[in-house]
């Protein structure tokens, strides 16, 4: 089996027991989308409030955006932090993902 080319870090909030923080980095493309989705869904199952940080992105495509959009619709409160180059954020904004990028 091929080694994962992405990293998912999960941390429980010490202040809010109903909040989970997730950090994603690396290759966040279709190649890893099934594994990313399964790991995120397993991690967030018992939490209504999420912080999801996307950083050190090597590849990103619509599959990750679909996963994040589905999670945002399902959970009570989801905050995204996209720590990526401005040109990448700009492309996502121009593609119509303003609500996801700006946490509206």
Briefly characterize the structure.
It contains four helices and four strands, in the order ββαβαβαα.
Overall description:
With 104 residues, this protein is α/β, with parallel strands linked by helices. The protein has a single domain (6-101), classed as 2-Layer Sandwich (Transcription Regulator spoIIAA), CATH 3.30.750.24. 39% of the residues lie in helices and 35% in strands. The protein is built from 4 helices and 4 strands. Strands 1-2-3-4 form a 4-stranded mixed sheet, covered by helices on one side. β1 and β2 form a beta hairpin. α1 (30-44) packs parallel to α2 (62-74). The termini are far apart.
Largest sheet: 4 strands, mixed
Number of helices: 4
CATH architecture heading: 2-Layer Sandwich
Q: Please write the string of helix (H) and strand (E) elements.
A: EEHEHEHH
Straight-line N-to-C gap: 39 Å
Q: Point out poorly predicted stretches.
A: none
- Taken together, the total number of domains comes to 1
Q: CATH fold name, please? A: Transcription Regulator spoIIAA
Mind telling me the CATH superfamily name? STAS domain
What's the total number of strands?
A: 4
Topology of this protein?
Elements: E1 6-12, E2 19-28, H1 30-44, E3 49-60, H2 62-74, E4 77-83, H3 86-94, H4 98-101
Parallel strand pairs: 2-3, 3-4
Antiparallel strand pairs: 1-2
Helix pairs in contact: 1-2
């Amino acid at each position: 089996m091929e080694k994962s080319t992405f990293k998912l870090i999960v941390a429980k909030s010490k202040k809010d027991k109903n909040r989970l923080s997730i950090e994603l980095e690396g290759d966040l493309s279709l190649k890893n989308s099934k594994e990313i989705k399964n790991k995120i869904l397993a991690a967030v199952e018992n939490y209504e409030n999420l912080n999801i940080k996307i950083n050190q992105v090597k590849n990103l495509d619509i599959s990750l955006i679909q996963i994040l959009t589905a999670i945002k619709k399902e959970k009570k409160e989801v905050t995204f932090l996209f720590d990526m180059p401005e040109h990448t954020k700009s492309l996502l904004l121009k593609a119509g993902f303003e609500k996801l990028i700006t946490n509206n």
